[in-house]
TrEMBL record, chain A:
Designated name of the protein: Putative zinc-finger domain-containing protein
Pfam families in alphabetical order: zf-HC2
Domain Putative zinc-finger: 15-48
Lineage of producing organism: Bacteria, Pseudomonadati, Ignavibacteriota, Ignavibacteria, Ignavibacteriales
Automatic annotation (TrEMBL), chain B:
Database matches in InterPro entries: RNA_pol_sigma-70-like, RNA_pol_sigma-70_dom, RNA_pol_sigma70_r2, RNA_pol_sigma70_r4_t2, RNA_pol_sigma_r2, RNA_pol_sigma_r3/r4-like, WH-like_DNA-bd_sf
Family under the similarity heading: Belongs to the sigma-70 factor family. ECF subfamily.
All residue ranges annotated as the RNA polymerase sigma factor 70 region 4 type domain in the record: 124-176
Domain RNA polymerase sigma-70 region, chain residue ranges per copy: 21-87
Pfam families: Sigma70_r2, Sigma70_r4_2
Entry's Gene Ontology BP terms: DNA-templated transcription initiation
UniProt xrefs under NCBIfam families: sigma70-ECF
PANTHER family reported in the protein's UniProt record: RNA POLYMERASE ECF-TYPE SIGMA FACTO, RNA POLYMERASE SIGMA FACTOR
Record-given protein name: Sigma-70 family RNA polymerase sigma factor
Record has Aminoacyl-tRNA synthetase as a keyword: no
Amino acid sequence: MSEINLNIVHPLPTCKEVMNHICDNLGEELDSPKCIEIKNHLENCDNCKHYFNSVEKTIEFYKKYNVELPKDAHDRLLDLLGLKE
Amino acid sequence: MDETKLIELAQNGDRKALTELVKLYEQTVFNFSYKICRNKDKAEHTMQETFLSMVKHLNQFSGHSKLSTWLYRVVSNHCLMLARSEKNIGFASFEDEEAVIDEKDIADWKFSPDQITENNELKNILDEAIKKLPADYRIVFLLRDVEGLSTEETAKIVELTIPAVKSRLHRARAFLRNELNKFLSEEMN
């Protein structure tokens, strides 16, 4: 009688695969076997951890870089639309 | 007064309600336009065109989607049109997929995102990096990551398939990260 092998081996991800995965799936909660391997790799690889942090920071930088609408641009807009108060 | 009521009143010719709607969204539209154009004059022009379009087409607005989503679409289309009319010199090429991930020079960054408000040098670095992205990649990155829209909403606004949005997002994230890394990496400074 043959036994079923339950220990299916997933090849370990390389750093490049992990970095690609970060750019693909950042912000999405995924729990496939592949994603679990990626998370395990991330916990133990400083290089990939730095990469992950830098991609997260890239997004944060652009989120926090905001500009205020100048008062004169607001006035010109209302004027253009014929809504001047 | 809630937005649906304001839209209904404005559709029936109430100018006060229309003014309120403009005031409700002018900052968001200007900021988003700036984030795409990285230029205050172009951002103001885009904002004006967007609200002119809103006033003109408000009666066609059915309320099935959010007004903000509709405005994002108008801004995006306007900016894409502007980009197509300008010569796209200086945009990065994304033909070589393998070239996007840069495994070299991976170190911590010396600036934190909180420093952006008072650091003009940092602002210039961010402006120059994102200006190198083709407009459709820039818009996908901004809608999905910066404005926080879902992949599905982003796909509808830019009229791309979900896999196409994901592919552009991947490349935009990797490209911007590499560009910023040249200036912000601890090891290199």
